[in-house]
Structures are given as structure tokens and as C-alpha cells.
Amino acid sequence: MAYSGDPILAHDLLFRPEHSIIDQSLHAKLGGFTTNGDGFGIGWYGNGNGEGAAPVVYKSTHPAWNDENLREVATQIRTPLLFAHVRASSGTPVQRSNCHPFRYGRWMWMHNGSLAGFQEIKHDLLMAVDASLFPGIEGSTDTETLFFLALTFGLADDPPTAVARAVGFVEDVGRRHGVEYPVHMTVATSDGESIWVFRYSSEKATSSLYYSTDVSQLRRLYPELEVLDRLGADARFIVSEPLGELPGAWNEVPEGSWAFVRRGEHGIQPFHPTVPA
Asked: How far is it, in rounded angstroms, from Cα 275 to Cα 25?
């Protein structure tokens, strides 16, 4: 889940919705895993840490539904931009450094899916990471590797192009190693001002991804929901699964697309991987 809008308590985002990210850690409906208990993480900007500062992250290997520290900490975080992720490991160890979201400088990154044949192609992928960025890699996941490839290919300057090049590179390396469908991903990344999301898989069968409708429209549809009154007109959610059964509230990000959200703006474009020269 990613949120952008007026500052709001993290507790209201993480625990209050009917099908919250915490509920999804136990009862996911649309993903490959019903239970996502291999750790969790949240990352946020603001809350007194200075305009333009790096995000703060809180991660744990505990299941999100059973972490009282998360419930308590969330009552003290008020933020205009929050990332939250519950993890089901695709084979790498359950450890804090492998929990999402990942962070480098002002950037955050989280991912659902996997890079197929990762252990076979890992060496080639890591050797392509810029040497100046390499010391920032802390864990052993395919997600963090993809993040640092995107950083290498220019994430800070042009996120859609950088991610297209990173994905194209992974597909090229994977297929040279005999991997038919190397990439399966929904990705969210942010610099603290905007959020970019990507939905793509090599086999054209990607996990679900949704974004919320304009809050003013939701207020008209559901006047009985008081929580909507606390959200400004610019508030937007990006989620793997809808946070509640509200018809008209959620729009699916199309397969093979990228989208951006920033204050007063949002848009969707086709996503096409490119193999770097």
C-alpha cells in the first residue's frame, strides 16, 4: 500500500480500513500467497524529519498482524506519504534487511512478485550495479537488486525510463540463462514528492494493482464513512488489493502500465522494457 495526500496518522491507514494491509497479511485475496507473514515494513516522509530529507523506515521479521510495536508506533506517525509492505518470501532468508520498503538516499522502493531464476542470474545482475551504489545493498533479495539496477540506470532523473531499462536488462540476462519469463512485478517507488508504480510481467500475467478514485467522489458515494472527511481532495491510495468493498472506489492499473501520483496530478502510461545498449 502507498498513500499520498494530507498528513494522516499511519494507524488510520494501516489498521482502520476493512481490508487493511494488516488484514491482508493474513487474508490476502488476489495475490499468490494468502498469508504474508515473513516480515513487514513501513516507510514514510515528513513527521518532523525535515523537508527533502530521506525517508524513515521501520521493519521487522515478525508477522505484521502480531506486532504490538507496530500498532503503537503507528499512533505517533503523521505523514503525507507512506509505504507499507507485508512479505511472503520467494526463497531468500527472512531477515530485517530483506524486508521492504528498501531505501537509498531520498528513494524508497517496494515490490510484489519475483525475478525468476534469480539465484542463477544474480551474479550477472549485481555486477551491473554501479560501483558507487553497491555498498548500499544490505540484503539478498531480487527486489533490492532490481531497485539498485533502477538506480544505476537513472531512477533519480527519469523513473519510468530507468525502470524500463532495469526490467529490460533483467529480461535479457534471464533469457540468456534460459529463463522464459524472467520478470513478474508490481513496483512502487518514491522520492518523497511523487509516487511511481509499475505493473508488468514477462508472461503478461501480473499481480493485481489498484488506485483510489477522487476522494470527493467517494464522499458523495459513501457519506456515512467519517474517515473520508479526514482526507484532503488530493489523497490517493495505491494498493495490491482494495482496502474495502466500495463499488466505484477503486480503479485497476492495466497490465503493462506505469502510473504516477503527485499533488493534484496523476496519470497512466504504457510500460515497455528496453534493453540498455
From this structure: 35
Can you tell me the distance from the alpha carbon of 65 to that of 152, in angstroms, rounded to the nearest whole number? 35
> Would you give the end-to-end CA distance of the chain in angstroms?
34
Rounded distance between C-alpha atoms, residue 21 and residue 8, angstroms: 16
Cis-peptide, bond into residue 254, ω within 30° of zero: no
176: which residues sit within 8 A by CB, 6+ positions away? none
Digit-coded pLDDT (tens) for 222-241:
666 666 677 777 888 888 87
| Cα gap 238→109, rounded to integer Å | 13
Q: pTM for the complete prediction?
A: 0.87
The string of pLDDT tens digits covering residues 233-274 is 788 888 887 766 666 667 889 999 999 988 767 789 999 999
